[in-house]
Design brief:
Blueprint: H1 2-32, E1 36-42, H2 61-69, E2 71-77, H3 83-92, H4 128-134, E3 138-144, E4 163-167, E5 180-183, E6 186-189, H5 205-219, E7 225-229, H6 242-245, H7 255-280, E8 287-293, H8 320-323, E9 324-330, E10 339-341, E11 345-346, H9 350-358, H10 372-375, E12 386-391, E13 397-402, E14 405-410, E15 417-420, H11 436-448
Helix pairs in contact: 5-7
Length: 464
């Protein structure tokens, strides 16, 4: 009898210890689960289009709440004043003098590209998504990609993304009621839409992107995930579902002004839906969310929305209105709420920064740097590195920021315009003549800032 009891006690003790081990393992897993990251980037929204950045006309309550619960940056820059190269710098950590995609269109033939002028990312490019994959993350993207056509190495599923829904070609993304988008490698035809836009088109692609994002968050709630949401709004064409325009019907605005305001309102609404989803699933405090634009405002909307705010220029300009973007980062308990930072950083910094967040691999030689301390509200050393941009449409332009100095020039041998952003953020006063030593320093940097590209290089002086 005693032997039977001893055997029973042994197995009961073994079962108990095993149960404790399983419980401890699950608890430890919840503690060490790496933070989720959601990076939302809208298309052609201006620096002054959010209430937290001075907008007074159209309302952005959810994004203003995001700023109140997170950290608002006032000196953050996109990678380019146009779409594709800006996205390339974000994905690769290289500025436009080094990244693979340096313009929307290449002026020379692109081998194996199904669409004329579209340069894809290379298989050798190490992307932000691949960094997350290396750390065991599930990765998803929805919206506009712009870095590789269906058969190229630049396709998102070949660049580290597990799940993909949206537009590969950025020009097709102009039509928010397009007849098809892509679901991974497959064509997804949109119900009620046809190639020639008309009022019978019923499937609004933006809604599909938000549905994908919400579904992805829910499906991946038990793992660590990276979700990239490059929304197509508020890029034209200026078409919205009729119901979205109703709140603006009584206003004495142009049709396009009403649509633009409705686009911003839809973005804001859907950001609120994402935050509600995170809260409902208990993911809020373990998810870092970014919100920004891919470049400056396509239209300044002067006298109505003043989308560039007090900044000079707009999309396709190397002035601040073309490249400076709102940037809000939120993560309750980690990112200090209701705070503001003027620390300067830009899209090439995103890869090394998020790699620092998740202890991911960072390739050598990136142009970007880790700015995670600034995001978390900690001290950073003064930013004395050069930040660089180049632009290749119609003419070749370069821009550089060093400390508070901003230089802009046309062509490799053009005269440098110099601005002091600390006293003149609107770039109204070219002070190159009165600061020859700074002008020379920035000019010398621009001479060496870039490497040759098979597709984008400065035209000869006589072509300018």
């Amino acid at each position: 009898m005693r032997d039977w009891r001893a055997i029973l006690l042994f197995f009961c003790t073994l079962y108990y210890l095993n149960s404790c081990q399983e419980s401890t393992t699950e608890e430890e897993a919840s503690v060490i689960k790496k933070p989720n990251v959601i990076f939302v980037m809208v298309d052609d929204m201006g620096y002054g289009d959010l209430g937290s950045y001075g907008q007074k006309v159209h309302q952005t309550p959810n994004l203003d709440k995001m700023a109140a619960e997170g950290r608002r940056f006032t000196n953050v820059y996109a990678g380019s004043p146009v779409c594709a190269p800006s996205r390339s710098t974000l994905m690769t950590g290289f500025h436009t003098g080094h990244t693979t995609v340096r313009g929307n269109f290449a002026p020379v033939p692109v081998p194996n590209s199904p669409t004329k002028g579209r340069v894809p990312l290379n298989d050798s490019d190490y992307t932000l998504a691949e960094m997350f994959k290396g750390e065991g993350y599930v990765t998803g993207i929805t919206g506009k990609w712009g870095l590789g056509e269906p058969t190229t190495e630049g396709h998102p599923n070949r660049q580290g993304f597990d799940e993909w829904l949206g537009f590969l070609n950025q020009r097709r993304a102009h039509d928010h009621f397009a007849d098809y988008i892509w679901r991974n490698q497959d064509t997804l035809f949109l119900e009620g839409n046809d190639p020639a836009f008309n009022q019978s088109n019923v499937t609004f692609s933006h809604n599909l992107f938000t549905d994908f994002a919400l579904d992805f968050i829910e499906k991946q709630q038990d793992t660590s995930f990276f979700l990239y949401v490059p929304y197509c709004l508020p890029h034209d064409h200026y078409h919205m579902p009729e119901a979205a325009l109703e709140p603006f019907d009584s206003l004495d605005w142009t049709a396009n002004e009403k649509v633009y305001a409705a686009m911003i309102a839809r973005i804001d609404r859907d950001m609120g839906r994402m935050f509600s989803k995170l809260e409902d699933l208990g993911l809020d405090e373990n998810t870092m969310v970014f919100f920004c634009s891919d470049n400056g405002a396509a239209r300044r909307w002067e006298g109505r929305f003043d989308s560039s705010g007090k900044l000079r220029g707009r999309k396709r300009d190397m002035y601040e209105g073309g490249i400076r973007t709102p940037m809000i980062v939120r993560m309750p308990g980690k990112v200090p709420a209701g705070t503001e930072s003027d620390y300067p950083w830009y899209f090439p910094d995103v890869l090394p920064t998020l790699a620092a967040l998740v202890n991911g691999e960072v390739p050598k030689g990136l142009d970007g740097m880790n700015v995670l301390p600034a995001i978390l509200g900690n001290e950073m050393p003064p930013n004395e590195r050069f930040m660089y941009w180049e632009f290749h449409e119609k003419a070749f332009f370069q821009a550089v920021r060093w400390k508070n100095w901003k230089g802009v020039r046309k062509g490799m041998e053009g005269e440098l315009e110099l601005y002091d952003l600390a006293s003149d953020p609107a770039e109204t006063n070219n002070i190159s003549d009165s600061h020859p030593e700074i002008t020379e320093k920035l000019s010398n940097y621009l001479d060496t800032a870039r490497t040759e590209s098979p597709y984008w290089n400065p035209p000869k002086t006589e072509q300018l």
